[in-house]
Amino acid sequence: MSTSVIPVITIDGPTASGKGTVAHLLAERLGFHYLDSGALYRLTALTAMRRQVDLGDEHALSKLARDLPCHFAGEEILLGQENVAPLIRAEEVGNTASKIAALPSVRQALYSLQLGFRKTPGLVADGRDMGTVIFPHATLKVFLTASVQARAERRYKQLIDKGFSANIENLLKDLEARDARDTGRAIAPLKPAPDAHILDTSDMTAAQALAKVLEWYGALKHS
Ligand code: DC
Question: Which of 34, 98, 117 most suits a substitution to test ligand 1, by most atoms within 8 Å of the C-beta?
Answer without folding.
Answer: 98
